[in-house]
Amino acid sequence: MASVNTRTPLLPVLAVALWAGAATAEPLSVTVIDLKFGGETTEGVRQALSQKLRTGLGATGMEVVPDARLRQALGRKAGHCVAAPCWRLAAGKLGCRFLVGGTVVGQDRNYTIELYLADGYTGKVAARVQQRCDICGLQAVGEKMELAASALGAKVQGLRKTPAQVAVQTAPAGARVLVDGDPVGTSPLRLDLPAGSHRITVEAEGFLGATRTITAVAGVEERVEIKLIRAAPGAAPRRVYGWGLLGVGVASLAVAAVLFAVDGGQTGCGGEDRVPGGQCPELRETTVGAWTTATLGVGATAFGVYLLLKERRQPRETALVSRPGT
Questions:
Q1: Hey, which bits of 61-109 come out as E strands?
Q2: What are phi and psi of 31, to 5 degrees?
Q3: Quick check: bond before 172 cis, omega within 30?
Q4: Which of 24, 114, 141, 282 fits a disulfide with 133 by CB distance 3.0 to 4.6 angstroms?
């Protein structure tokens, strides 16, 4: 009886696993910003290698931005986007963090492929790859181009999974640092944070606390610098003044209400002092006092509420966050 091979081939299994991983991951956009050719490269070779570059990037699960969108976003700069200011501009307009460029030089069927990966957030080159193909036809050099593109794509996926690094510096140093309300240490310190919005709060004895909001980006190092303001000697927190003024305001409004209620009431009603008809000889005049107290109450209440709201909103202030190369 013939034996049956029950082992599953390894390569198809790996291919299915990689495809499933790419299908479930959130697509990441990338754009080919600058690809130049030199030496003996015909127009047909240029078009074929440009397509191979895009195919290789797409094979790693990334979505390649069409050239038409790039030209629409940058206009005449589309063919000359080779420096940090243009990279940042393209990333902002396209919503695309990573940009790919490079050169292909061919001579006597010998090809040198050099590609770079630019980070539009930092304005820096995040990776470089190089491939050589000696005595190669179009198919062979095309495979080399796909390999180079795949290497850049793997670098992008690695940066995407890397936590954001945030360096917190304060003046003075030694301030207590909290991230999203949880204490993490004293400044200066370096933090690894998941991508997204975070609140960085710093506190130091004798200084007013400060809170800043940052947006952490995976694979990017950010620097947050906060200068604390020294508190005046004996200064009470803003919320103490707020609640105090609010209490004075409410009490004043209550007194004003009583004064308005008794205004015009009869007084001095001793039996011998009554005028004919039984009326008291005097009436209460509290209008001025009522309006004065009401004005004080409204002002104190309004200012107390203002201080409390300002104290509450302070953590939502946004800091200027500097990234390397910006």
A1: 62-64, 98-107
A2: -130, 145
A3: yes
A4: 141
